Amino acid sequence: MREVNFSIPNVNKASVGITTALYDRRALDCTSTLPLINSLNHLAYLTTSSARIRDILTVDGGIERLICILKQGRSKDMMGMWKWNLAFQCVVNIGVRGTENVRTRVVEADMVPIIATILDNYIKVVDRCREKAEEANQKHMHDHHHRRHRAHDHRAAKPTPSFANRAGRSDLDQRSVRRNGPPPIDVSATYAGPSTATGQPRADTAAAPLARSFLVHPERPIVTPARSHHGFRTTDARLAGPASPSQSTQSLAP
């Protein structure tokens, strides 16, 4: 009968563990998770490299203890998963690397149902992943076909521009080009006063935009400003001179 293997911090007692240089069966009976993980980690190395350790495990009940750990199942806790994985690795090393008697002992320890359960869970997970992938692929194909159908309908419903619209658009373009006419001519400059010195610079400044408009639109005919006629009329009136006082008095007489 083996003694209980657990740590007692109050009396400074540590639990017995397995190392790469020492195998102790009491280490597998430890109830604490962390010391058991440490022992299983070293035991995985020993079962890989030492045939004597594999034979001892089939005799002292170590293989049964490992299978009991596996039957507890994997928990969502990281430490529990680590413990389960290490125990499974130890059993696989014993069953694969051991002799025929060791393999028979592993089967007798009820390891086959655990392996069957693991394989069944693996097949279920693979089937579930395949179904999800097929559903995602079908959904993607359906969405792609729906987008192509909508794009085709949108292109078919889009109206094509008619000849009348094109003609109206060209007329609007021509009107916008021809809309820029010559600048306005200031005619009031000739009636401002009698001096011709001030009128001549204004005429030059008014003729400058006309010349620029002629350079911009060379195809337009040259328009002679009407200001010259008014200028001739004013000069004729100046040459005629003021009327005599006798004529003005005669016009006022009854």
From TrEMBL:
Alphabetized InterPro entries for the sequence: MYND-type_zinc_finger
Q: Where is the composition biased (Basic residues)?
A: 141-157
GO biological process: one example: establishment or maintenance of cell polarity
Q: State the residue spans of region: Disordered.
A: 134-205, 218-254
Top-level lineage group: Eukaryota
Q: One GO cellular component term, please give it.
A: MUB1-RAD6-UBR2 ubiquitin ligase complex
Q: Where is the composition biased (Polar residues)?
A: 244-254
**PANTHER family in the cross-refs:** MYND-TYPE ZINC FINGER PROTEIN MUB1
UniProt protein name: MYND domain protein (SamB)
Q: Which organism is it from?
A: Ophiocordyceps sinensis (strain Co18 / CGMCC 3.14243)
